[in-house]
Structures are given as structure tokens and as C-alpha cells.
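G.,

No rush on this.
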Amino acid sequence: MTCYLTVDDAPSSTLDEKLDALAARDVPALLFCEGSRLDRHPEYATRAVREGVHLGNHTWSHPRASELSEAEFVREIERTERRIEAAYDRVGATRPAKLFRFPYGDTGGERADGFQRILRERGFAGPNRIVEVGTDGETLHHWPWTCSVEDWTTDSVTELRDRFEAAVGPFATDDPEIVLFHDAGNSPALFEAFVGWLCDHDREPGDPVDLVA
């Protein structure tokens, strides 16, 4: 079973320590970044790119998409895109793909089709080995997840471990699992423990960008 680690709400003030945990275990990851956080912690984004950790777009201010107009949605994306591109430029690296995740998993309500069109026109790619189809019959251009332990709701390693064990139990098919964790809202110790569990449970950490190939 291959698991793909995706990390929302990056970069936080503790991302440096979390990047250490990824490097120690040689775990690929995809950070979905808020533009406003990239403004506050550009050095961590630079390190992430340098070490092969991918940056995806998670809007500028983490709004619920169903509360945005199309024009507001475009502004949220494009402001963040400029910061992501700047991080790759600082390192001199080629961005492997344009990836987007909706905050809260809110895909836009009655404007969902329009938001998918906006993402498609701007070249965003979803994970094409995860089957999810939009109401217009086209494959979606954002990143959902298939496994979440709601890490932002606990500070307890023991409780998180129990949630992890319950979540990985159903991993019985050959389909890839897109695992959701967070940067902001939890401690480096919690993050490091979770990364270790992924590696120690016969789950092969895969490079998320492989899912768009």
C-alpha cells in the first residue's frame, strides 16, 4: 500500500522542525500553502523546495470557497501563486506541477463548477489515480484526501495513535491513499510521531506528484 502525505496550512513557525522529521525518514510530502503564511515564513518554503518537498496552493487566507465569488476565488489563488513561484525561483528549481486544495474541503457549493473551470484554465492538476468526478462530468482539478486523523483537534500522541490505527485498518485495497495532516495547529512532536507511524506500518510513502503523471 502506498500512502501520499499531504500537509495543509503551511508554512507554520514550526515547519523547520517538521521538515527535519521528513528528512530523517526520507518521506516525500506535499505542502498545501496559504499565501499569507508564505509571506510570514518564506525561508521555510525555500528550504522545503530545496529538499524536494512540493508546494501546492491552499488559497491566500484560508476562506470557505462557498462564501467567495469567482473573482474573489481568482484573487485568492493568484496572490498565493506568486509566492509559490517566488519560492521555486529562489532555489532555481522547476515546479513539477500546479496543485490546489480547498480549505475545509469546501469546493464552492453552487459555484463549484465555475471554480473547477478556473482551476482547469490555470493548469491545476488533480490526482488522476483518485476517482472523483465533478457535476459537469469532468475530472476535478483539486486535491481531495482519503484519510484524515483530524490532528488539529488533539495534542495527545496517545489519542492520535489510536486514531491512526483506526484509520489505517481499512487500507486493504491497492488504491493509493492520500493522507491529510497539518502544519499549523499541531506540535513538531505530534508530526514526527505521525510520520514515523506511516513508515512503520508497512505503508510505502510515495511522492504525491507521481499521482498527476
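When you get to it, here's the other one too:
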Amino acid sequence: MTRRIMLFELNEVPWRIVDEFVADHPNSALARLLPRSRCYTSIAADRGHLSPWTTWPTLHRGVNDEQHMISAFGQDRTEADTSFPPVWRMLRGAGVSVGVCGSLHSFPTPPDLDGYAFYLPDPFATESTAHPADLVPFQEFQLMMVRASARNVDTAVPRDAALKFLRTSHRIGVRAGTYAALAGQLAAERRRPWLSTRRRSMQAMVAFDVYAKALADTRPAFSTFFTNHVASAMHRYWAAGHPGDYDEIGLSDDWMQRYRAEVPWAMGRADRMIARLAAFADDNPDYELWIASSMGQGPTMAQSLETQLYLQDPGLFLAGIAGVPETGWTRRPAMNPQCNVRIEPAYVAAVEAALRTVTVAGAPLVFRQSTDGFFSMDWGQPNLHDRPDAVCVAGQPHAPATLGLETVEIEERSDTTAYHVPQGVLAIYDPQDPTPGPAGRRDVSVLEVAPAILHTFGVTVPGYMQEPGVLARELVPHSVGTF
């Protein structure tokens, strides 16, 4: 029988968070599925800084960061896409039906877009291209919301884009229950404004409705769905639920109590999505559900964060440090506090030299450069609101506003209380496999995932990838059929 795979990309979630959720929710979908699944601890394979912008391309392409060289949104990926294409492009090229929903670096869209069952690029795309056309209003609305909300959640809603999306939402699968949840969220925010942070999960719920309908309508052999909402909650609120992880806690008791339930709440939303996919697999047993993260998170520090330094006007900054005119640069997608730009060739050398002289609170500005004039800068320096001389260029202090910088107040007053670690999750639920996997969770490199997927569909694994390893060997043997 032909096998089909739904790849649920649960960004940055480690087994510890999953296990705690299952222990506290014995009737959850995860509590039911995991004992019947083959479970592994996925290990990130990257050599540089662990970041989802890098670790997901590693999982999707079967090579690590030293080969694919992808480190940020907006980077020119022409060479990487040619040499190490993502698994969905390889499958589609082999005639496998494919659907993509939100996977990182799925924009720009492939040239054969109409050949996909559905294709909704990641929410950091620079334009609202999607397939089929009914998905375009949702993508347009999603992009506007993501651009407005970075470290803080913007409670404003782009009215025109929202109305355009609402007129088409029923056709693309947004359910009445999701609208009820959205209405409940808005009502809750009126009583407790701090709950606006949960809007990140609301976006994921709507996107999942879109994916679930597209999946049911088109039934591709391989499809992906990406969600970041649990990762977002863990970064901010890990300390509230795990105070024992820290030698010192610089957060108030009120803060700890207020946000204690946020990570489990976000996991609950993910569990509902997983329940729907598991039910779909049970009804269509040629489908397998793969739940994967490309890395995990673990505790860092539990300290108060009042402000972060953001680059709000890159044009003013580039003109101020290197004399770059407005025509000499373009912005590339990124999420605060990162800022990505592409510099025209005539100004690349000047920008690189100037950036090497920038310091913030005495530390050099961290930035990365690619060969096509792409620069990615790491801002977000904490609690500089009373340090007007903190930013220096070539040793000379500059008022932040004169360089397009702003110290932005952080709504929940917490720093990153958890950050990236190599260990993630991988669980494979196959309704046709009556036996669970071996006891324990063996470590598997994320480099095994792409070749295992290709192997499942009978697609030749390219020589630059690892040979199909423990994952491929342990999957239930099956024949390859028509896709």
C-alpha cells in the first residue's frame, strides 16, 4: 500500500515539555498516541549558532549549516536550493503529490507552484503568493500581522486585510469553533490585557484549520505544517512553570503566577491539532503522522527585561554609519530583534567596515554577511533605556534615535528564560503499525529525517545525504505505489 506522511513541525519543543503535558493531561491526544508511536530524541546537526532559521533547513535538506549555508530569512538561497533542495521539492520532482503549509524558507515559491496540492509559504514571505488562489487573502492577512507583532504582540488588527480574509475564510476551512476561540480570546483580553500574548497561538489555530481542510480536500502523499506558538511561549515563560531550574530568579511572584500556565496552555492548542491529524490517520490508515522539532529549548536565566534595543529605521542607520542612500539597500524579512538587509554592491565594503566598529554597551554588534550583499544584524540588547551613550560607532557615542534605533518596552517584562538546545522530539505514529517502538528514545540526527522520508516514497537518496539509517530501518516495510 502507498504510504503518506503528514509532517507536523512543532518548533523547538523538547521531550521534557511533552512529557510534563502528558503527565498532567492523561486523556490528551499525545497521551494516547505516544505509547503507540516510535519515539526518538532528534539531535540538531548544525555546527554554528542554533537557530530555527538554520536547523529547519538542515532537517529539510539532509545537510547541515556548513553545507547549505542558510542562516537568515531574505538570504539568496539560489545556490542552496540548487545543490541541496528541500525534501518537498525533491518529492515533487519525483512525481509525489505534495502540500506545504508554513515551513520555514518555503518562500520564494517554487517555479512549478501549480503542481503542488497546496502551498502556503512561511509567514516571513515578502509577498502574499499562495496556491490555490483562495489562500492568498489569508496569507496577506497573516503577513501583515506577523510584521506588526515581533517581541510584543500588536493588538491592532489591519481592518481591510482582515475583512478580505473573513470573506473567504469559510472556503478555506476556518471553523466556527476557531472563531469562537478568537472571540473568547478578545473578551479575555478586556479583563486581563496581558493575555494578548496568546494571540500567537490564535494565529497557529487559524493556520491549522487552513492546512487541515487543504489536506482533507487534496490528500497529498506528503505535507507539512509548521507552528512556532509553543516555542514562543517557552522562550518567554519557561521560568514561570519551572522556577527550580534557576539559581536566581529576578522576576516577581506576581509575574511567576500570571504566566505559570502559558506553556501548558500553548501545548494544549498543539495537542488539539495533533488529535485532528491522528484522527485523520486513523480514518485513512495509509497516512503516518510525524511530529518533529529540529532542536529543543532549555532554561537560561530568569531575569526581568524592561526594554530591548530595536533597529526601527534601517535606512537612517545605514546612512549614518556608512553613507548608504535609500537606493543602496533593501529590507529583507526578519523577526525582531534581528534586522536583515541587502546592500547594493557599491556600498557593501563600506557597510561591512562600519558594522565592525559598532558597539552596544561595550560589546561588538553581532552580524553575519553573505556573498550577495546580505547582512543580518542581531539587536535586542536589554535594558538600555537609561544608557543614552550605549551605542558607539568608531568609538563615538550616538543617541539611538539618530541612528534609527529605539529602546522598546517589553510588555511581559521577561527576558528569554529558555533558549535553544540540540535535543528535540521525533515521534512517528503509524495506524498500521500495531507495535510501539523500542523502549526508550534513541538519539537520531535530524540529518536522518530527509533521507528517511525519501526512502519511504521510494525516491533515490542523493549522495550528499546520509544513507537511510535507524529511522528507515525501523519503519514498517511497505511498498511504493502511485502518488
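Residues 307-409 form one domain. The chain has a mean pLDDT of 90.

Enjoy the weekend,
O.
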